[in-house]
Every structure is written in C-alpha cells, then in structure tokens.
Design goal:
Blueprint: H1 6-28, E1 53-57, H2 68-80, E2 85-89, E3 91-92, E4 95-96, H3 101-107, H4 120-130, E5 134-138, E6 144-147, H5 152-157, E7 172-173, E8 176-178, H6 184-200, E9 205-208, H7 223-233, H8 244-268, E10 273-276, H9 283-288, H10 292-297, E11 303-304, H11 313-325, E12 337-339, E13 341-342, E14 345-346, H12 349-361, E15 367-370, H13 372-377, H14 379-384
Parallel strand pairs: 1-2, 1-15, 2-5, 5-9, 9-10, 10-11, 12-15
Antiparallel strand pairs: 3-4, 6-8, 7-8, 13-14
C-alpha cells in the first residue's frame, strides 16, 4: 500500500471524487447508449382488452348533446377514458333526441325542443363510429311519460294510456308519471319507437332500463288490466299491490312484452343488440315488476346491466353478490352498472377502484358507468388506474 503524506491527500481525494462523478453521469445519461435517455417501461394493463366499458349519456345535468362540437368532445373524452360502448339517451320525459315521426304524430313535437333543427343521434353515431366506439340507443324513460307533469303531453293526448293505482289516480313514483305498461296501445307505441330507431339509424344496440319493461307495482288497477285479470283468474285484482300472485301475473305480462320486443327487433336487424339495465333484483320485481333473471334465463336480452348504484364498498359488495346469486345463464353477459356521479356527489378514486376490484373478483370483465359527466371529471383515474385494476 502506498501511503500519501498529508500535503498530497486532499488533491488526490478531489481528483478521485471527480472521477466517480464522471462515471455516475455517464451511467445516468445512458452509458453506452451514447447519452440517449432510457425509455421508461410502460405498465401493461391487466384488464381484458375486449372487456366491456360503457358510459351512459343523458340530457339531464349535461350539455354533452347540445352541439356537434360538444358531441365531438364527448366522444374524445370517452375514447381517452377507454370507453368502448356509449349508451346515448334517445327518449326521456316524453321527448326524443332524434327527429321522430311517431312523436310528431302523437304530440306534435318531433324532437326535444332544444335540439330542433339537428339530429344529435346521427351526430353521435358518426363521431363515435369514427373513433371505434359502439353506440346504443337508450330509452331512458321507458314506460314513464313525464316527470312531475301529470303525465305530460303524452297523457294529455292519450288519457286512457295512464297507469292507475287502486284509487283510480295516475301512478306516480319518485316523481315519475307512468303509462299503463299492460295496455296493448301503450306497448305498441313503445315498440314502434324502438323499431323507428332500429330502422332509421345504424346503431349497434337498443336499451331499456329500470323503466322498461317496468311499471310501479302500485299500478294495474285501470279498467283494462283489472278486467284482463278477472278474465284470466276469475277474481278481481288483490287490493294489496304486493300480493305475490298479483306481482307474478303482472311481471309475466311485462316478460311477454320483452319477448315480443326482441322478436320484432331481431327481425329488422338480427345482429343489433338488445340490452337491459334493470334495478337490482328482487327490489326490481317487488317495486317495478322487473323479473330480469327470467329475461336472462330465457336469452331475451343480449346483455344485462343491473344498476348496482351504491355509495360505500360494503353496500356495493353486498348488492353485487346479490345480483350474482340470481345470474345463471352465463351465455348472456352481466356487466354491473357503476355509479360515478349523482347530483353533487362524485365518487372518490379509492371507492371507484374498490368497486372495479369487486367486479373482477366476481368474474365480471366489464361495467357501465353512470354517467358521462362523472367520467369527464375523473379522466385521470380512467387513464392512470382503471386499466391496471385486478
């Protein structure tokens, strides 16, 4: 070992430190890569690349459909969030978001007034298909004619179409006014709207939800339905609207409507999907006469998306397990409906991640999000976390 005297030690240490610094800089600048920066490794998404990622777009609390530019931005945002199926509202509150000959004949108003002179549905189809996103026409209000408007323009034009409770009053539930879903004229009207869209537009699918096929279980006391029940059963309808046999009889009538709807739509476009997003079962049955397990068991729908809208992970986990317990025909995909935003409530990133984790743990490879405005508020979560959740 060579020992240096004190006068030589400090210069030697300085030179040695400089040498180490140069080596470190060379390594940090890419070493033998000639100073080029090292490309960072991009994480690999853990989701199924063909998984279902849907979004509902409505007219309430949203300006997404108010102009062609807004529709373009909406599609771009959905694309950035990896949404591959858009469910655009085409019917709510007694109005359509496309020019409808049927509505023109019925109430003299062919399209929601704020869209007069435009065709938002066609604009959305053009923009979404150009971006590789599928479009489903969503009949949001279904058998509900209006919201807190005494039935609105439809009941004003067709008073006998109103759903009636045991006291003979218009059926209203949570503010929604209802048509009589058992009336053949009402059923023909709804099917004609579905067929109008299927015939005129290149949509990938059509959808009913917690209001189609559905009607509050307090309904069915109109003359037509009461007489039909007496004809088939030999007795008047029970005064208890939740009577099990009375619920079952009315639910089966709505099942028959759905079967007919599917048959007539598939005759027009066999490849077009018919999807449903009902309330969670059995609440859906006792409150709205929706028997979605039978729809799935009978393959009357191509996809079912129960609305598992909850505000904490314990409640979400519970309702998801409940819906899974009634899901038997796995040839019909089930994708949970996930609530992102409602009113001023925007779900946290952590809760969003927990819900998707539960979906994956239960074997569901996709979900549909309510609604677009929440997706717009959480684009970074959709880009940075959603693809990597196991």
């Amino acid at each position: 070992m060579i020992l240096l005297s004190k006068p030589f030690r400090l210069p030697f240490l300085f030179v040695f430190c400089v040498f180490l610094g140069l080596i470190s800089c060379k390594k940090n600048n890419g070493g033998s890569n000639g100073g080029r920066p090292v490309t960072p490794v991009t994480p690999t998404p853990t989701w199924d690349p063909n998984g279902f990622r849907g979004a509902w777009i409505t007219t309430a609390a949203s300006s997404a459909l108010d102009s062609r530019d807004n529709i373009k931005q909406c599609v771009q945002t959905c694309k950035a969030a990896s949404i591959n199926n858009i469910f655009m509202v085409v019917y709510n509150n007694g109005r359509t978001t496309y020019p409808s000959t049927i509505m023109q004949h019925l109430i003299g108003i062919p399209i929601l007034e704020r869209y007069a002179g435009r065709d938002p549905l066609q604009e959305m189809i053009d923009e979404a298909h150009a971006a590789g996103i599928k479009i489903h026409a969503w009949f949001e209000y279904g058998f509900s004619s209006s919201y807190s408007a005494n039935g609105g323009a439809i009941v004003a034009a067709k008073p006998t179409w109103a759903a009636k409770d045991i006291n003979g009053n218009l059926v209203v539930k949570n503010g929604f006014d209802w048509l009589n879903a058992f009336n053949p004229e009402v059923q023909d009207y709804m099917i004609s709207l579905f067929k109008e869209v299927a015939t005129k537009y290149n949509v990938d699918g059509l959808q009913g939800d917690d209001r189609l096929p559905a009607v509050p279980s307090t309904s069915g006391y109109d003359n037509y339905t009461s007489n039909l029940y007496f004809l088939e059963k030999g007795v008047d309808p029970p005064t208890n609207s939740k009577d099990a046999a009375w619920v079952d009889w009315r639910a089966k009538k709505l099942n028959g409507f759905l079967k007919r709807l599917r048959t007539e739509l598939k005759a027009i476009k066999p490849a077009m999907q018919l999807t449903m997003s009902p309330s969670p079962y059995p609440f859906s049955l006792t409150e709205y006469l929706q028997d979605w397990p039978t729809w799935v068991d009978s393959s009357w729908v191509d996809i079912v998306m129960p609305q598992c809208y909850r505000y904490d992970i314990a409640a979400y986990t519970s309702v998801l397990a409940q819906q899974k317990s009634y899901y038997r025909n796995t040839s019909v995909p089930l994708y949970p409906g996930v609530l992102v935003k409602s009113g001023t409530t925007l779900q946290s990133d952590a809760f969003m991640t927990q819900m998707i984790q539960q979906n994956r743990l239960n074997g569901f490879k996709g979900e549909c999000f309510f609604f677009y405005e929440g997706i717009k508020d959480k684009v970074l979560w959709y880009q940075q976390q959603y693809p990597f959740i196991k």
